[in-house]
Specification:
By secondary structure, the protein is α/β, with parallel strands linked by helices. It folds into 2 domains: 36-317, Alpha/Beta hydrolase fold, catalytic domain (Rossmann fold, 3-Layer(aba) Sandwich), CATH 3.40.50.1820; 326-392 and 450-669, no CATH class. The protein has helices spanning 3-30, 83-91, 124-133, 155-174, 205-210, 248-254, 289-302, 320-336, 338-345, 369-391, 397-422, 431-448, 461-489, 505-533, 551-577, 585-613, 623-649, 653-669, and strands spanning 36-44, 48-57, 68-72, 95-100, 108-109, 148-153, 179-185, 216-220, 265-266, 272-276, 537-539, 542-544. A hairpin with a 5-residue loop joins strand 9 (265-266) and strand 10. Helix 2 crosses helix 7 and helix 11 packs antiparallel against helix 12 (431-448). The longest helix has 29 residues, at 461-489.
């Protein structure tokens, strides 16, 4: 084999071996090495189609029905985020359904239902309970009551609460309770007044206490939860330290005047209650051995009368984390395979046209205060604007000032363009000024006109916020590049080639074709791994996972806008890393710093202050800050692809197309999509 082919082929094989080996290992931990069958199931409901991962211990069936648990995720997540509960409960003999909520993962609500956010998701767990109750492997008592537990995180916790309430209402007519116990993670009763379900009043702690029907109930109320469990009368944002058991809501829920955390209390109706208060934040609940131990302890107590059908294993002896670690290594292998795959694809006749020439690193510029200031601003600015931009408060002070800054940048660009045009005979180039004017106009429009509003065209509300931030961040990268050129690089002899954008139309088309083929082959592997092992490639909240084909048209609508970001951020990486002193790992570290550094600093400052002082850097930024955990791997991987492919291709086009394709689908498929798909 040609040496130019041998090396990328070898790395491709290594990457595939890593993917296959660690996906197989992840399957082993997921199935307790063959003791549990794991399969994806679908079932229809009045509101749509629900899907989930069914964990069925060996032997469970007509002859040996088992206590069963429905466990589900929160907003913008999917069933896989409940791996920890599903694996550990099934190891101990429970049947478990890890449920995709409506319009999340592989579940979908019917058209006409999804327009109202609160109209469809609250009943997801109860709809799943109706299905499970009819299955032969689900245990029932002599009276026909279901021995089913419901557990959910955040939005899934709301659905768990709703399910118990609805089950108690149905009990009044049927005399049968299908739900035996319920444990919520990361949810309280603040949300319930917004439900608006027919015949249902707001479910506060008192109402819940009165409708528990003697069930065993629990609540996991993390001390640093970004959303819930606030002190009575608390103001000034929710990202603060909490002590839920000290609130009136907890006292009503536990029916105690001075309750303590992690303590069981009997209730007058014959039930039991407990509140767990781990030292963690909201998304930590679904990636925590402590939270998992609390869940196991809860169901050990709740199902103690049915212990004979279960396997006794200490709650601290957990294996789910090994499954997550295996999937993380498989994720590394998955990311690794794209660079050699592209290298091999570019040996093909047409695709090789995407390569525009060899790269000669330029001399590293001399350090200086202005250079460091511009770089620091470029790194930090996307993080600084993040809270205001994600809130999209057009009349807010910050965005108002931002608009005037954009207008000023436009005037500056016009001055630069005119001066350069007047000096064109002396080598002046008006292009940087024109680019600054165009960037300023685009910024002003984005900051003035409401854009990416949830609609049938853009039906993913959180993706709308993300793409809005991405566009503004990309334009700011362009602004910083122009300022850097005008103030520094023009004097140093900066050239167009330094930016990696020079390419013929044929080269750009070949780059697009290369990226499309690599993207398709990559996701073909994602689906193959799911079919073989029922696993995916993930790290906590970030994942390359399977999706329903109805997602693709929606992703295509967002794709051009994400491309703008990955193209402009890619150009910024190229021009700031292609020097003789930034070769090897130093160049990749600089690329990651440029792309993800601001986000990382934001998270450290935001959550560092939360844990140190009890109040986060931005106390009002709950969901937005949580989203940033997924931004770190997205932006880091994109930076690596940009740097690696530029070194091979001599331009930024292939990396920009590939990053846009991969990360758009990750963003859309891993969030929530409403309205008709």
């Amino acid at each position: 084999m040609d040496t130019k082919l041998r090396k990328p082929a070898l790395w491709l094989v290594i990457a595939l071996v890593i993917v296959l080996a660690f996906s197989w290992l992840a399957q082993g931990f997921n199935t307790s090495f063959g003791k549990v069958s794991v399969s994806r199931i679908y079932f229809d409901t009045e509101k749509g189609t629900l899907s989930g991962l069914l964990y069925l211990p060996k032997g469970a069936g007509d002859a040996s029905p088992r206590p069963t648990v429905v466990t589900t995720h929160g907003y913008l997540n999917s069933a896989e985020m409940q791996d920890l509960n599903a694996i550990e409960l099934s190891r101990r003999g429970h049947v478990v359904l890890a449920l995709d909520m409506y319009d999340h993962g592989h579940s979908a609500a019917n058209a006409g239902v999804t327009g109202n956010f609160f109209a469809f998701w609250p009943t997801a767990i109860y709809d799943a309970v109706q299905y499970l109750y009819e299955q032969p492997y689900v245990l029932k008592d002599a009276a026909g009551n279901g021995i089913i537990g419901v557990t959910g995180h955040s939005m899934g916790g709301f659905s768990s609460t709703t399910a118990i309430y609805l089950d108690e209402q149905d009990f009044a007519a049927s005399g049968i309770r299908k739900i035996y116990a319920g444990l919520t993670h990361g949810s309280d009763y603040q949300w319930t007044g917004m439900l608006g379900l027919a015949g249902m009043t707001a479910i506060d702690a008192t109402v819940m206490a009165e409708n528990a029907g003697g069930r065993t109930l629990g609540m996991l109320a993390a001390q640093f939860d970004e959303f819930f469990f606030n002190a009575d009368g608390a103001t000034g944002g929710t990202v603060r330290k909490k002590d839920y058991v000290a609130t009136s809501s907890a006292k009503a829920y536990l029916q105690q005047e001075a309750p303590q955390a992690n303590t069981w209390y009997d209730t007058p109706d014959g039930g039991k209650r407990i509140v767990y208060q781990p030292y963690q934040i909201h998304p930590w609940n679904h990636f925590s051995t402590k939270a998992t131990a609390h869940t196991l302890d809860f169901y050990k107590e709740a199902f103690k009368d049915y212990a004979g059908a279960l396997t006794a294993i200490d709650s601290n002896k957990q294996t789910w984390l090994f499954k997550e670690l295996s999937e993380f290594v498989a994720l590394i292998g998955f990311v690794m395979l794209f660079i050699p795959m592209v290298s091999l694809l570019q040996k093909l006749p047409f695709l090789r046209k995407s390569i525009t020439g060899a790269i000669t690193p330029r001399q590293h510029p001399k350090p200086g205060a202005l250079r460091y200031i511009l770089m620091a601003v470029g790194i930090l600015l996307p993080a600084i604007i993040f809270p205001a931009v994600m809130d999209k408060k057009m009349d807010g002070t910050f965005l108002t000032v931002f608009r005037w800054v954009a207008a000023a940048l436009g005037l500056l660009g016009l001055v630069i363009a005119v001066r350069c045009q007047m000096k064109k005979k002396e080598g002046g180039n008006p292009v940087p000024g024109v680019l600054l004017v165009l960037a300023a106009i685009a910024l002003f429009v984005l900051l003035t006109v409401p854009t990416f509003i949830q609609s049938p065209a853009f039906p993913a509300p959180t993706t709308n916020q993300i793409v809005y931030w991405a566009l503004i961040s990309g334009l700011l990268a362009l602004v910083m590049m122009v300022l850097n050129f005008v103030l520094l690089r023009r004097k140093e002899g900066g050239k167009c080639e330094d930016y990696g954008v020079k390419a013929s139309p044929v080269s750009v088309l070949a780059a697009l074709a290369t990226a499309l083929i690599a993207f398709a082959l990559g996701y073909l592997l994602v689906f193959a791994i799911d079919a073989l092992f029922v696993t995916d490639f993930r790290l906590w909240t970030f994942a390359f996972k399977t999706f329903e084909m109805s997602i693709l048209p929606i992703a295509l609508r967002y794709l051009p806008f994400f491309f703008v970001f990955y193209f402009l951020s890619g150009v910024s990486i190229v021009v700031n890393t292609n020097t003789d002193k930034l070769q090897g790992m130093r160049g990749y570290c600089r690329a990651i710093l440029l792309n993800a550094g601001g986000v990382i600093i934001y998270l450290i400052a935001h959550y560092g202050l939360l844990f140190l002082t009890g109040t986060a850097l931005f106390p009002t930024q709950a969901l937005s800050s949580i989203l940033l955990f997924g931004f770190v791997p997205v932006l880091s991987i994109a930076a690596i692809f940009t740097r690696a492919l530029y070194k091979r291709n001599g331009n930024v086009w292939t990396a920009a197309f590939l990053n846009a394709l991969l990360m758009t689908l990750v963003t859309v498929a891993n969030t929530a999509v409403y309205f008709q798909r």
